[in-house]
Amino acid sequence: MNVCSKCKNEITGDIYISKLNKTKILCKNCYYAETFCITMSKIMQIDKKYKNINLKIYKEKLILEIYQDNKQKDLNKKLEIEKQQDKLKVVLLPDKITKIIDIKDFEELIYIINNQKQVGIPNQKEVKLLRQKYKPGTRIELIKMYDYINPVSSGTIGSVDFIDDIGNIHMKWENGSRLSLIAGLDEFRILED
After folding, report:
1. What is the DSSP letter of 151?
2. Per DSSP, what are the bridge partners of residue 140?
């Protein structure tokens, strides 16, 4: 008979190993309660790391408000966060995008949102320079795309299709994707022939 180290009840289903103490076994409920506390602690660390983030608790959700700057005047994104077993359900507003992610991916999401808001729209001179550097047909290897919806995988190769008037580098990726690159945000390199 296995007994949960936390609640002392008999474990009738799956046995879980504590993330805090690998020598203790837990029932499903105690395991999820423990991982919830660990996750919330990490989210609170993120809140302290960035000056433009405000963390609130509303009913059974955490609300993470990400502002344009440290003065917390202009709201950029709002994230509603709920724990779902060992994952997080994150709703991004105003986009109304729902993602089920783990805490590592959550930290990456915050990083992406903060970096996206810092990249401005290039002026016409900068767009002209981009067009000179990335001519149609230029082969590109993606190192990292900072897109929280559906990024192209790192290592994917593609060709420049064109650059629009706001500096987005429109691509034809070998995997069939047509997602654009954003200079100054996404990481990529030109492949030499």
Report:
1. P
2. 158, 190
- Global pTM reads 0.66
Residue 127: pLDDT band with limits 50, 70, 90: very high
Note the CATH number of domain 124-190. 2.30.30.30
Question: Which residues, in sequence order, are CB contacts of 142 under 8 Å at separation 6+?
Answer: 152, 153, 154, 155, 156, 157, 158, 173, 181, 186, 187, 188
Mean pLDDT of 13-35: 84
Residues 6+ apart with CB under 8 A from 102: 86, 87, 88
pLDDT in tens, 60-70: 788 888 887 77
3-state secondary structure of 124: helix
| Dist CA 103 CA 39 (whole Å) | 7
Residue 176, pLDDT above cutoff 80:
yes
Neighbours of 138 (CB within 10 A): 15
Any bridge partners for residue 177, and if so which? none
DSSP one-letter code for 56: E
Structure tokens that stand for 47 in this block:
């809140």
21-55 burial, b if ≥16 CB within 10 A, otherwise e?
A: eeeebbbeebbbebbeeebbeebeebbeebebbeb
Element (H, E) at 190: strand 187-190
Domain ranges of the chain: 38-118, 124-190
